[in-house]
Amino acid sequence: MTRTPILRVENLTKHFGAVQAANNVSFSVHDHEVVALVGDNAAGKSTVAQMVAGALTPTAGRIFVGGHPVTIASPREAFDLGIATVYQQLALCENLDVTSNIFLGRELTSQAGLLDTKEMDRLAREYLDQLGGRIPDVHAPLAALSGGQRQGVAIARTLVAEPSLFVMDEPTASLSVSQTADVLNYIEGLREMGKGVILISHNLTDVRAIADRIIVLRHGRINGEFFAQDASYEQVIAAITGLTHGH
Ligand SMILES: Nc1ncnc2c1ncn2[C@@H]1O[C@H](COP(=O)(O)OP(=O)(O)OP(=O)(O)O)[C@@H](O)[C@H]1O
Ligand SMILES: [Mg+2]
After folding, report:
1. In this predicted model, what pLDDT tens digit does every residue of 43-71 receive, in sequence order?
2. Nearest atom of ligand 1 to the alpha carbon of 220
3. Ligand 1 pocket, 14 CB below 6 A?
């Protein structure tokens, strides 16, 4: 029996005028699975991610969520389909505390119509603990947190909507080594929660450490697919640089 993937894309294609940013890209993401998209600059990684996240409309190809064909015309529609996107530029409020940031715009209220701060604090703690985050105090203002901890808050914020798939485009790009370790920890937390993750990263060491599968894009096409535990660094590099050819 094959499990229905959370996401399947088939022959996903995006042309910008003469630029073939993505060409016939097909892959699946299952629950409890981290799929890394790697490739050189301009390989098409962000283009593919943005089509899944509803930020770009495909030129051709099909997208299935939970086995059903869908069109994802906007980030809002992606959100409604259970697809969360965590961007590098985080839209968080410096002067608010961790709980307030997680529930900003979706505050919980008690039956009397008052803000249910106790329940929000409890849930914020629960999300952060599930992610394995090292954030000691949900009342700390965001300004007091490191970049890695902020990523944790941004991810916890998306958990409120209970998405099934996370799209992360270079979530560690400007982070220090220890902050990057925090973010990799969160991604492992998401996998343990049963989520699927599409992770875009240039750091092959991180990718091989955390991904279940690695998909290599080159000039907009898939040029190699690996189980992370079987793939050598050299094999992945060869697929990225075009020394070997997929398909
Ligand atoms: N909005 C756009 N208009 C025109 N061309 C675009 C647009 N977005 C991306 N491209 C082109 O599509 C190709 C793929 O870009 P994409 O951003 O997907 O690459 P990437 O793999 O994410 O690269 P990087 O590692 O540098 O982030 C590039 O040639 C890029 O110039
Ligand atoms: Mg990119």
Report:
1. 999 999 999 999 999 999 999 999 999 99
2. 14
3. no
